[in-house]
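Q: Hi! First time asking for a complex rather than a single chain. Here are the components, and I think there are four in total. Is that enough to go on?
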Amino acid sequence: MKYFNICKEPIDNQRVIDQVIHHNAGAVSVFIGTVREMTGDKQTKYLEYEAYIPMAEKQLEKIGEEISDRWPNAKTAITHRIGTLQISDVAVTIAVSTPHRQDAFEASRYAIERIKEIVPIWKKEHYIDGEEWVGNQKGTKQYLSGYPEGIENK
Amino acid sequence: MKYFNICKEPIDNQRVIDQVIHHNAGAVSVFIGTVREMTGDKQTKYLEYEAYIPMAEKQLEKIGEEISDRWPNAKTAITHRIGTLQISDVAVTIAVSTPHRQDAFEASRYAIERIKEIVPIWKKEHYIDGEEWVGNQKGTKQYLSGYPEGIENK
Amino acid sequence: MVRILLFAGLAQQAGTQDISINVNTPISIIEMKKKLQEKFGHLNGLDNCLTAINEEYANESSMVKAGDTLAFIPPVSGG
Amino acid sequence: MVRILLFAGLAQQAGTQDISINVNTPISIIEMKKKLQEKFGHLNGLDNCLTAINEEYANESSMVKAGDTLAFIPPVSGG
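A: Yes, that's all I need. Here is the structure of the assembled complex.
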């Protein structure tokens, strides 16, 4: 299985975890994003995720590289699911192993924040009373540089 | 399976994760502690963990209650393995689910720090060139109150 | 031909995800956005979305040429 | 009888994990530590280890009585 993977089937968390466990890891921080039913007073029926798959996998890999730059002994694996997801389904699983626990927590958290900034994946909420693409589709946020945060022109 | 569990068999991470996933969880932060081979220049051959099992399970449960007090919508499950563990074996798996990711990371981290303070479990390192019980067995740390941090006389 | 990819709300408005547009000489992304609006009418969010050429983020003044794949990337919402 | 539990380095030094000591009237943990040292000789780390009576942390002045379980808890190192 790829370390940085967009998939259409349910995610096997243990397979993602196994990809980062090794003899000098002492800590693995795993982040699992699941489909939540209630957001404020809005009730979700189900979600749809769409991705620009080849670019999304490249961007996930880039996040892995950023983590290795910041936490030199870290090892990262990320799988994001797309398609239709029901309440409690796993949308994303991130596993980061490091020799010591503080780095694992920080790196795992870094990964999910970066996914939300630079990986071309989109979520459509299907609520009981309507649907919407999430992520500021109305265009009120400006990317003045043309790049998301931390992505530079090469 | 118990939510707060001391076991002698290999830990099934997915079972611990499944215990905290529910319809209003949106984030699960999982911490997995594994046996690391090198600590500085010391090489571990294997570890032995010992526990005061009934009290250890009560203390794990207490950590779950502390988490629920601090993060009201959190749900926690913790399994710690004892006995002989080889390099890369999983010693502890903590899963905390919350509606939003920040709380999950914080609570999961809180849990591992508290385990290291209040849960009666001991680790014996079997190095290539000797063995030792870990945890300041020499008695240089004083518990002046007679209680570990955050445990009060009732 | 330049291959154009649209996603999420943009694809929904345009009614397609994947089209090809003929270009004789390299043109900027700004110019390509104009061509798209000529073809589909106004597309909400096109003005401020990100873009990628051949799977790498680009900016509005980047040039696309025949054989390139240009993706319009609305604000992402994975995770 | 008070049931005494020893763990980790303490159990290793004493050569046992689980013994019973007769008490006629309740005695403090400090006094029980003295009894243990009479029985086993000096035990490294006994002085500053934590204690639990019936699976709850206690302090040195807490009293133990017949039927109680008293555990001596060296600095913990789980996780």
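A: Residues 63 and 111 of chain B are 6 Å apart (CA to CA). Let me know if you'd like any chain examined more closely.
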